Structures are given as structure tokens and as C-alpha cells.
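Hi C.,

You asked whether I'd gotten around to modeling the 446-residue construct. I have! Everything is below, sequence then structure, no commentary in between.
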Amino acid sequence: MSELIECPPGHMFKVRFSNVVTSLFLDANEQIWETVQAKEESEFSNAVKHHVFFMDSAQQKHTEIPVSILDLEDLEELHLEKNLIEVIPKEICHFQNIKVLYLNNNNITDICEELGELQNLQSLDLSSNPLNHKSLDVISKIHRLQELRLYDINLEEFPVQLCKHLHHLQLLGLSNNKLKSLPPEVTNLIHLKEIYLQNNAFQSFPIQICALTALQVVDLEKNKLTSLPADIGSLCNLVKLFMSFNKLSFIPKTLCQCKKLAVLDLSGNRLHKLPHDISELKALNELGLSNNELKMLPPTICQLRRLNVLYLKNTGLSTLPATFAELESLTILDLSQNCFTDFPHEICGLIQLQVLSMDDNLMSTNLKELYIENNNLEFLPSTLNLLHNLEVLDCHNNNLKQLPDTICQLHGKVLVIVLYGTQCYVIIISNCSYFLLRFAKIASSK
């Protein structure tokens, strides 16, 4: 027998019957009928009500949490983000099985005491609400909470009560607030693995973080930090460190004790040099150094054999270390907006390189021969047209998908050697129209 499932349009929910999960979606124009063996409509409604464990009712213009949702007592995950909800009702306490609750991007001002009764709640997001900060203490009663996101709530002080009672917290999101410091009690969060403090008002690194040795991700981008503490080396489990757009002038060599560090972003600072011990970061695969004042790289950086991505845009570089080709895993390299006057031939030994940015440099327009064969380049820089005296461009044995259109603007007679599949072609450019016709003919004959 078919019975109508009554649910507001636009909702997505999941029902579990005998360990079989069924996902249902009701759009704005249709209602979905589900065949269920039930004697009465009320019997079916109760059956559904006691089996719905997931509900997505985001972006539905709700001004309050619908009663039909509050009746779903077995709910485990509820998404109500991006609505117009102003109040968390007392009936929220009905969700005794709920583990994930997203209420971000609403108009909520106060957190009711009943929210603290959700003892199975593991993940809570109240970001982007005009919250009364005093009501945040209610959250301290949710002792099993593992993830707490409070982004963009104009928070100036992190509540001490949360530090004292949320012993299971693993993720703390406080980005886009007005924090200048963290309370000493934050060291109680011994299980914390991720902390996000981007775009706050920190002028000094919150030293308490260095005591949280379980941390794997630290994000302090877009603050006003001038230095990193030597104690940062105690973060032995650190995997990702985001410190871009601060005012750092040096990096302590103790950072190189973080042996598990895989992603390090130091872009947009005031760095003049890197520690020679950077070679100790053997696990590093992504390094961002753009928009600093380095002017040169330590040769030891070439020992980072696992490095895949290296951003060096606008760093004042004019040369590369002689052993640069030892970065054998490098696939993406950004050297744009630097001071190179000649093409750095050290790049030609990077056998895995796929993306190279060299735009806006000072490369001499007198360059006559350029050899970048036997790499994995997929594209060539569009600025090749600036090499007005180029006579030979050898780019065979690459993975070029096409040549840049700007190559047609090269003056004089240019010999271009390219490889398509297993066929090597020599293209002679004597004027734009000849090259375009010739190249189109070659490309279409593959």
C-alpha cells in the first residue's frame, strides 16, 4: 500500500529500516510516494518518524525549527544552516541521539539551556550568528563534543568554561573573530587536533597552543604575528601549518623539528631567509613562500625530495640553487614576478614538473636559444612572445597539449621543435600567418 510521506518541500532525509538506508528528496514541486506495508497512515508516519536519522533542511527560509523536524526523536544528523532561525527551542532536548547539528548562518541570539542536554552531540556549528556570548557557556555541558565551530560571531574572548569541560574536543574553529589571545585554560584541550584562528587580531603567537601536542592542523592566517615561538617545535604531530599574511621576519629552526609537517604556508610575510635546517622537514609536500623578501634559497631546500608544490611568486629571486633539480617530486612551481633575467636551466632537470609559472620576470629579450626538452610540461608560459630574438625553442619530449597563441608574435625566424605522440615536428616561424596555418595542419593530422 502506498502512503504519502508528509515533509516540507526541499528537504532531504534518510530512513533506516532493518539496517537498510533509504534516501528521499522532496523538491519544491513534487512529493515522493514510498511503498510501505502499513495498515494505517498513522502507523506509517510513526514508522518513518522513528527511523529518520538524517535531515537536510538547509536554505529553506525557516524562521523557526519546524515542529515536524522536532518530532524526529531518532535523528542523528540535522542540517539547518543558512535559514532565518532566531530561536533554538526548548524542544531541542528531544534529540537525544543527535550527533551532528549545523545551525550556522542563521539569526540566533541566545543558546537555550536545553541544548546542553544533548549528551550524544559530537559536532556543533553555530557560526555566523549574532550570538550573545554569555550564552556560550551552555556548550560546556555537552561533554562528548568533538567538533565546535564558532566562526564569525564577533568573539573577543574565548569562554574559559569551554576549556574546562570539553575534554573530548578535537576541532575548534574560531576564524573570523576578534580574538587577541587565548585563555591559559585552553591547555586542557589535550585531544585537540585542529585549531582554526584565521583572520583574528593576534599580535603574538598564542603560546598555549605549543602545549597541545596532539595538534595536526594550526591555522593562524591573516593575523598580525611578528614571530613564532621556539616552543613550536614541540608540536610533534603537526601536519599542516598555515601562517600566511602575517608579519613574520624569521622562522625559528625549531620548526624543523616538526617531522610530520606536510603543508607549510608562509606566504605574504616579511621573511628574508629560511633556516638551513628546513631539509629536516622530510614529509613536506607543499610549501608556500610567495610574497616574501627571500632573494635567495638555501641549498638545503633541494633535499625536500617529497615536495610536490612550491610557490615562490614575488620573492626577489634571480637564481636557483645549483642542485634545484634534486626536487624530483616537484609538479607545480611558481616563479612568477621575480627577477630572473635568463631562463633558470636548473628547472630542466625537474622530471615530474607539470605546471611552471614564469610570468612577469626580467628575462632578457636577447635570449636566442631556449632548451626545455625532456620534461613533463603541459603548457608553456604565454610570455614567450617577449623573447624577440629567440631563434631556437626546443620543447620536445614533454606533454604539451598546445603551444601558447602568443608564440605567433615572435619576430624573425624561429625554429620550434615539438613532439606530438611519437612524431617529432620542426616548425619554422617566418611570419604569423605561415605559423598558424602550418601548426593547424600538423595538429589535425595526429
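If it helps when you're writing up: Residues 1-6, 17-41, 432-446 have pLDDT under 50 and may be disordered.

Thanks,
B.
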